[in-house]
Amino acid sequence: MVAPLKRLLLLPFFLFAISVMGQDVKDFESWTNVGVNYPLTKKTNLSLKYIIGFVDNSTKFERSMISAQFDRKMNKWLKLGFEYRYAFQYDIDFHRFWFYATIKKGLGKKFELTWRPLFQYDVEYFDREYMQYNPSWPVTRNMVSLNYKFNKKLELYFYVDPYVKWKNQQPNFYRFRYGPGLNYLYQKKLNLGLEFVIIDEFNVNNPWSYSFVNIKCIYDLPKWKKIIKKLKY
Questions:
Q1: Where does residue 232 rank: exposed (0-12), middle (13-18), buried (19+ CB within 10 A)?
Q2: How far apart are CA 110 and CA 219, in angstroms?
């Protein structure tokens, strides 16, 4: 069963390469994520991140964000989470809220299928009058990824992530995000990641297609008890 699954994993990368060569990508961006994870309990985790992005072929500052993420593992296959982001940008800052679930299913010893339904809501100002004349519409996303574990440290994946905006309770499929990536665990504590992503927009005014590299560097902090023990000795 493993050999056919390996061939199946190569198919999305082949299709992705054809897609990149065949479409008119108007901009290339670069994004960097740095942060820390702290285990509150065995099942509960807190993450703090700083994110910065550049556009116009990675030459112009676009946005930076600070993020606080909380998630809890409910069982072997289900995790529930919440993330808050505050974004700084030239025109206007905004708040972003995520509520999500992560559902995983193993496919043999090496492969894993992940589904992450997510609810997203942005707010520019917490002012009733401003929000009345400048409403923000919720967005739902349903990311699906296929992961392959080469070994204990290296993981390769390919994902698709459709965006649906609910304006006046009417769904509008307006964005599609997809691409390959890898995760690498360095010295048991440092999680390194690299993604190459394409985003296509449609059903909106002036649709835009662009790609970007997303670099991740997240450090797993030890519990405070272990830090105190090391300081004592």
A1: exposed
A2: 24
Beta strand pairing call for 154-167 and 190-201: unpaired
H or E element that contains 190: strand 190-201
193 by DSSP, 3-state: which? strand
Task: Give me the half-sphere count of Cα atoms (radius 13 Å) on the Cβ side of residue 81.
Answer: 23
Which residues have CB under 8 Å from 22's CB, separation 6+?
none
d(CA 46, CA 78): 17
* Assigned superfamily of 2-232: monomeric porin ompg (2.40.160.40)
pLDDT at 166 over 70: yes
Interval 94-142: pLDDT, tens = 999 999 999 999 998 899 999 999 999 999 888 878 888 888 999 999 9
What pLDDT digit, counting tens, does each position of 59-85 carry? 888 889 999 999 999 999 999 999 999
Q: Domain map of the chain by residue range?
A: 2-232
**Phi and psi angles of residue 112, each rounded to the nearest 5 degrees, phi first:** -145, 135
Helix or strand or coil: residue 228? Answer: helix
Pair 63, 86: CB distance under 8 Å:
no
Q: What is the pTM of this model?
A: 0.83
Q: 102 near 75, Cβ under 8 Å?
A: no
- Asked if the model's pLDDT at residue 231 lies above 70, the reply is no
Q: pLDDT grade, residue 18 (50/70/90)?
A: very low
